[in-house]
């Protein structure tokens, strides 16, 4: 591990919700490589890399969230870095979108973040330090047809981070939003070539991001070097959402 990648705040208790695959897993691995104690929540059983603690949790259920935190606290101590990453999509155009399509996405992506932040903040307040990182999306501020529910949930995270900053900023706690654009995943790889070209043409960088590029920004914003940044929205989107 090179010195350039080592934060002085290593060995912290880190929890990543929805951290068993994709961006969440890349974030968990980045903190693990940084020397932190890393736990992830998941809904469905999955194999995790050695050194990462997996706890089953449903972010739409407060009792499930409480149980997961109790398990993590027993193993690693109070959560000092919380990454709220758990999210779902139920894409469909407005006129076809059912009320359940809307409220279920909000309940996981937005209210789910509220539940885990509320539970984590108790320990952070006692420690008088903490880092909250909310994983949003370029869609939250840029918009996307067929994603009114998802975009609303991801835009809402900005309001949470900024209000949290005003409430807890004086206690050594920061809250920031990281907003990824298109990421290289199994999902984007499965898109038809024409669709991929269409997406790429709208990204100034001319390529999709790797999950690691998002994870490195999350690790940095949660580190000592970024201690005076709070309430910020950091796009990791190759310039796609500029001005938003």
Q: How would you characterize the overall build of this protein?
A:
It is a single chain. This protein is α/β, with parallel strands linked by helices and 244 residues long. Helix content is 43%, strand content 15%. The protein has one domain (3-234): Rossmann fold, CATH 3.40.50.720. The protein is built from 8 helices and 7 strands; from the N terminus they run βαββαβαβααβαααβ. Strand 1 (13-16), helix 1 and strand 2 form a beta-alpha-beta unit. The longest helix is centred in the middle third of the chain and has 29 residues, at 99-127. The termini are far apart.
Q: What descriptors fit this protein?
A:
disordered N terminus, 7 strands, 8 helices, 244 residues, alpha/beta, Rossmann fold, single chain
